[in-house]
Design brief:
The protein has 132 residues and is mostly helical. It has helices at 2-40, 73-76, 84-92, 94-97, 110-122. The protein starts with a helix and ends in a 10-residue tail after the last helix.
Length: 132
């Protein structure tokens, strides 16, 4: 019986840690949304191109791959895949990651970069809904 109690306690502890992690992730996404609005939305949008390309579905997409946006030659030829790690590196120093690219903005705060990437990761690509 004692071993069963230890198992229950371990399961409860794991559940608490998982819930705390999920809560922290949700908070990171919300902070990221606010940072995006303050620092990114002047040039970017989630669903429409502006001075910079739209960001929906950016995680998992090849850099320079949207057909309806005119990227810099450096970004188009980079063959970079946007992952959480490459997005953080990009937001740290775009020019260091892809020399000759056109974005001249970076986020100095590591937590803000982490939060923006958490937010961007929630912006899944929209798929067409079949007609009835």
């Amino acid at each position: 019986m004692r071993r069963d109690a230890k198992g229950v306690i371990a399961a409860l502890a794991a559940s608490v840690l998982w819930m705390a992690s999920a809560s922290a992730s949700a908070q990171s996404v919300e902070r990221g949304r606010a940072v995006y609005k303050e620092h990114c939305a002047g040039c970017h949008s989630v669903d429409a191109h502006r001075e910079g390309p739209a960001h929906r579905g950016v995680v998992g997409r090849r850099a320079g791959a949207l057909k309806d946006y005119e990227y810099s030659p450096a970004l188009q030829s980079s063959k970079l895949l946007w992952t959480r790690a490459t997005l953080k590196a990009w937001l740290t120093d775009p020019e260091a990651l892809i020399p000759g690219q056109a974005m001249d903005y970076s986020l100095d705060n590591a937590q803000e970069r982490e939060d923006v990437v958490a937010y961007l990761a929630t912006l899944r690509r929209l798929t067409a809904v079949p007609a009835p």
